[in-house]
Specification:
Elements: H1 2-8, H2 10-48, H3 50-59, H4 64-107, H5 112-115, H6 120-133, H7 138-148, H8 150-157, H9 164-196, H10 198-237, H11 242-253, H12 259-272, H13 276-306, H14 310-324, H15 328-354
Helix pairs in contact: 2-9, 3-4, 4-9, 6-7, 9-10, 10-11, 10-12, 10-13, 10-15, 12-13, 14-15
Length: 357
């Protein structure tokens, strides 16, 4: 009798169902884990470019599959073609820069302040000394340097774009996001409403949407402004291949606090080549115009749109980058934005309870 009663107990059935669901979710996560980062990138790209997709749907007279295909191909070209162009430029311009810089590296003497930098200093000293003994060994030394640092670099860079397979998966997923995005979003919203209520889900989704757009626009616009101003500075100062260094500065601008290393390195190069005035001018330009434009554009776009303190957004960007790779640039601020929405809603509820009138 006890076993029959236990088998008919509602709480036991609910416990078994909950346990089974948890196991299935964990197993599904293990199966889908390799594809999560490309799918997240596809969701972000689809959401940010959705207004453009709607215009394409109108031009295609409501044929959503055709519109999804056009948008996917256009966005793929917008991502892949600049990468190919940059690779071609690097191949064309890297050799002249190397030939000009190689004789200087053979005579350079690193300052004590650089030699004492933890981890980096000893490696740089080793590279310089090896090159001074054998100038032809610079290629091997540079490869060894980056291979030894690959763990740190991959941890920082991470995410999508490290190889063509993930990029292809992201573009493949993007097609289905465009085609079925409205239906999937509606289903997710209805599911969340069952747990949190219609009003709360609306607030949370608004917070997520505004944060994603603000972070994407803020990061890209700030990086574009920094890359443009830095490229102008490189061209005026006489840095070889200013377009390449400008594009690299734009890419570096997506990650906070990295851009100063770009124009500082260019200034050091000018100083080593005997262009002292140009080196000083580029350093001043980088410290003022290039660096400060980031302090104007990024807080104005991100904090103004999300009503989140910029310091919290900065922590979200850096923390997300460390935890999830490049895609964490957007996931980190979104998580904090949702927490801020929950916090504000809780404060509003407490105030309404304290002051019912």
């Amino acid at each position: 009798m006890m076993l029959e009663d236990l088998a008919e107990a509602k709480w036991l059935r609910a416990l078994i169902v909950a346990f089974s669901l948890i196991v299935l979710v964990l197993l599904a996560f293990q199966v889908l884990q390799p594809f999560l980062v490309p799918v997240v990138w596809a969701v972000i790209l689809a959401y940010v470019t959705w207004p453009m997709h709607e215009r394409v749907v109108l031009l295609c007279r409501g044929h959503r599959e055709l519109a999804a295909l056009i948008m996917t191909l256009a966005l793929s070209a917008a991502i892949i073609l600049p990468i190919v162009w940059l690779i071609i430029l690097v191949q064309a311009e890297a050799l002249p820069i190397y030939r000009e810089l190689a004789p200087l590296l053979a005579k350079v003497e690193l300052p004590d302040s650089i030699k004492q930098i933890p981890l980096l200093g000893p490696r740089l000293v080793e590279i310089v000394e090896q090159f001074q003994r054998d100038p032809s060994s610079i290629d091997t030394a540079i490869r060894d340097f980056f291979s030894q640092s690959s763990g740190e670099v991959s941890a920082v860079v991470g995410g999508v774009g490290r190889n063509i397979i993930k990029l292809g998966l992201a573009m493949f997923s993007l097609f289905f996001m465009y085609r079925d995005g409205e239906h999937v979003a509606a289903q997710v919203e209805r599911m969340l409403q069952q747990f949190f209520g219609k009003v709360r889900v609306s607030h949370y989704l608004d917070a997520i949407g505004s944060t994603v757009k603000a972070v994407v626009y803020g990061l890209v616009l700030a990086a574009l402004a920094q890359g443009t101003l830095a490229g102008i500075g490189y061209a005026v100062a006489g840095v070889p291949a200013p377009i390449i260094f400008g594009i690299m500065t734009f890419l570096a601008g997506l990650i906070p606090f990295v851009v100063p290393f770009m124009w500082t390195g260019a200034s050091i190069y000018l100083f080593l080549t005997g262009n002292t005035v140009e080196a000083i001018g580029l350093a001043i330009w980088g410290a003022t115009a290039v660096s400060w434009i980031d302090n104007i554009v990024r807080p104005l776009v991100i904090s103004g749109a999300t009503r989140i303190p910029f310091l919290l957004v900065l922590f979200g960007v850096l923390g997300g980058l460390a935890a999830f790779g490049m895609v964490g640039l957007f996931i980190g601020p979104v998580i904090l934005a949702v927490l801020m929405a929950i916090w504000r809603e809780w404060i509003a509820e407490k105030r309404s309870q304290a002051d019912p009138t």
